[in-house]
Amino acid sequence: MKVTVENKKGLNKDLKVFVDKKTMNTHIDAKYEEIKGTINLKGFRPGKVPREVLKRQFGQAIFSEVLDKVLKDTSSKALEENKIKPAGQPKLDLKIYGEDKDLEYIISVIELPKVEIKSIENIKFDDYSVKIDQKETDKRIKEIAKNQPNFKEASPESKAKEGDLVAFDYTATIDEKSFKGNEGKNTQLTLGRDLFLKGFDKQLIGVKKGEKKIVAATLPENFPEKDLVNKKAKFNCKILVIKNPEEVKIDDEFAKNLGAKDLNDLKALMSKQINDEYKNSLDRLSKNQILKELEKFKINEIPENLIEEEIKVLSQGMSKEDANKSKKNFEEIAKKRIKVGLVLNEFGEQNKIKVTEQELQAEVQKQIRMMPGQEKMVMDFYQKNPSAIASLRGTVYEEKIMSIIKEKANANKKEITKDEAEKILKQSQNQEHNHDHDNKNSKEKTPTKKVEAKKLPVKKAKSKSSTKKVSKK
Hints:
This protein has 473 residues and is an alpha+beta fold. The chain has 3 domains: 2-112, Trigger factor ribosome-binding domain (Alpha-Beta Plaits), CATH 3.30.70; 118-133 and 258-438, Orthogonal Bundle (Trigger factor, domain 2), CATH 1.10.3120.10; 149-246, Roll (Chitinase A, domain 3). The protein has 11 helices and 12 strands. It has helices spanning 21-36, 51-81, 134-146, 252-257, 263-294, 304-314, 320-350, 357-369, 375-384, 386-408, 418-435, and strands at 2-9, 12-19, 91-96, 103-110, 124-131, 150-153, 165-173, 183-190, 212-218, 232-246, 410-417, 458-459. Strands 1-2-4-3-12 form a 5-stranded mixed sheet. Strands 6, 7, 8, 9 and 10 form a 5-stranded antiparallel sheet that branches. It is elongated and about 110 Å long. The two termini are 34 Å apart.
């Protein structure tokens, strides 16, 4: 194989590839030997079909398969030897080809630009850690205790008051007639929460154990029997028991019921939970600071085809008129995103960052845990959508890159309080809101996926007849 660079126009390059007739014939001979033992033709013993007969019946298909394989192998090798990383799909233009002939073709390719990443060490960003005051931890634990009180049965003469738990049986009627779903057994309500029907709780205040009480309430919009929605019903209630709330004692036993080892362990877990709630959001701010700095990196030329593809993504779902109005703005956004993606990709390649199958599966499990009750649906989605898995791989790849950049870059470490964290996050949200109209269609993800080789579109000089895949009978 002989490769020469025909012309260089910026990132556009044409490579002429020449494969001599002898090499082509060697590939064809090998293909005939491969299929000779697998094809059965009437009148010939297996493996003894003469080449002339095979050529008459399968010659065109064999040549087509050999040509496809040689094009794939030699084009990949030509790009690799000349250290060209394609920005998109190269095109092949066949000039000379045919049986018992040399092969000559042109690879037209747009090259990814060279990216300088040495200055990554000079990037500055804020690396936040949140100091959680013990009072915040105690407050959170008290809130949990308040929301799951213990109840103790009240004396028979006690009247129900707000905060008490009342258990009752009921039958309901509308216009003195029963209806489907009009009975309830041992229904329990904590008075004051108004979780059953609007205004129902208040009417039970003052009842005693064993008492009967008629409560009037309107059936809600989500009532199963649609023809009864918004109808007023009477509930004949028999009070079974009244229980008074008891203050939950916050001790080791309480902590164990929540899955901690003891109270100190619960406090440590709660402190970490509160910290993580803020840390995740603050880490996103740090990441955005780094991405903004990467936008300033110098790249002499950005491939037009990548800009056009990115604009299509940004304008997806818009009318043609609106897309044209926003084209200039989208072009600027596209250039920034592509530039950042190129820098991150280059950094990933130079640092030999890979995504393992274990890391990918861990990310899938993470996505599944985020959808409780829909685990099977989420798993099926990823199993049936390779593009979704590829997107997850890109997410993991980017996070690994960002993690190493943070290690190498110049971090301004800041320990802040919870109140300071809330202030910083609120300011950030306001800035994003004010800037939202400029980026309403841009996606949060930075394009860091690698350019992968696809099947090359081959432009043939002339084609006298179509070819078919070799049929092995």
